[in-house]
Design brief:
Layout (H helix, E strand, L loop, with lengths): L22 E6 L10 H9 L2 E5 L8 H6 L8 E5 L7 H19 L4 E5 L8 H12 L4 E5 L4 H9 L10 E4 L5 H10 L2 E4 L6 H10 L6 E5 L7 E4 L13 E6 L2
Parallel strand pairs: 1-4, 1-5, 2-3, 2-4, 6-7
Antiparallel strand pairs: 7-10, 8-9, 8-10
Helix pairs in contact: 3-4
């Protein structure tokens, strides 16, 4: 997506007598099941005084917030941060900068954990929050703790290996066109389509033409209580899928 900031920040200035800064920890908290958080992430989550996470829509808890809810204590400050679900870089940059400024006062007092669903380095909002924070406040310290990403969770739910032996894996993010999918299918034995709901009909036609429907699978809301699995997509040309739906195509 390019640089997350459209304007150069003004660096923060600190005196040598200022108290030491806390650390912003990025926690990958897994795809949905609260028990799939790693031991290391859980230890960090329980130890910090402030826990931030992406705010949900229309006042409802977001995915990461629901995952971590069983592990939080009443003594911890919860800090929902608002990120728009848009593709406009100007709006996104403004939101990332605003979120960084909301986190900064807490970091001047102690550690903060930012919980994000999946893995912290895999299409994660944390990437942009951390970059914005460090550009606006170069003294800020950031650490990332890995988590389980949705392709691995979906493969486990299906009971299949994601890859083995010589197989090449291609992952396409939420926005892709037909030619990108065709190229991926030409070059990889396994193709993962993230957030496939908005393009499912188009993808289905391509897979039908390539005779790959029988070896393609969809997992919606992987590892959550409302998880649904679809196998052999020949029988499912018109699925109405939720936003968190992932497709695995075995192209052999």
């Amino acid at each position: 997506m390019g640089s997350p900031l459209s304007q150069p920040p003004v660096p923060s200035k600190r005196s040598p007598t200022d108290p030491p800064l806390g650390t912003l920890y990025g926690l990958g908290v897994g795809p949905g099941d609260p028990e799939l958080i790693t031991v290391k992430a859980l230890s960090c989550l329980r130890s910090v005084p402030v826990v931030a996470f992406p705010a949900g829509l229309r006042g409802r808890p977001g995915v990461a917030e629901r995952i971590i809810a069983p592990w939080l204590s009443p003594a911890q400050t919860q800090l929902p941060l608002h990120f728009p679900y848009v593709q406009d870089l100007e709006q996104l940059s403004a939101a990332w900068q605003q979120a960084a400024e909301e986190v900064w006062p807490y970091l001047q007092k102690g550690d903060v954990a930012f919980a994000c669903e999946g893995d912290i380095s895999f299409y994660s909002t944390f990437t942009y929050l951390a970059q914005s924070l460090q550009q606006q406040h170069p003294a800020a310290r950031v650490r990332a703790i890995a988590g389980i990403s949705s392709p691995m969770a979906a493969a486990a739910a299906l009971g299949i290996p994601l890859t083995y032996q010589h197989q090449r894996l291609t992952v396409l993010p939420a926005l892709y066109d037909a030619q990108q999918l065709e190229t991926a299918l030409d070059s990889a034995e396994v193709v993962v389509l993230m957030k496939v709901s908005s393009v499912y009909a188009q993808v289905w036609e391509i897979l039908a033409r390539r005779q790959l429907l029988a070896s393609s699978h969809v997992v919606q809301n992987a590892t959550k209580t409302d998880q649904v699995i679809y196998t052999d997509l020949q029988r499912h040309p018109n699925l109405e899928l939720p936003y968190f739906s992932i497709m695995i195509v075995r192209n052999e």
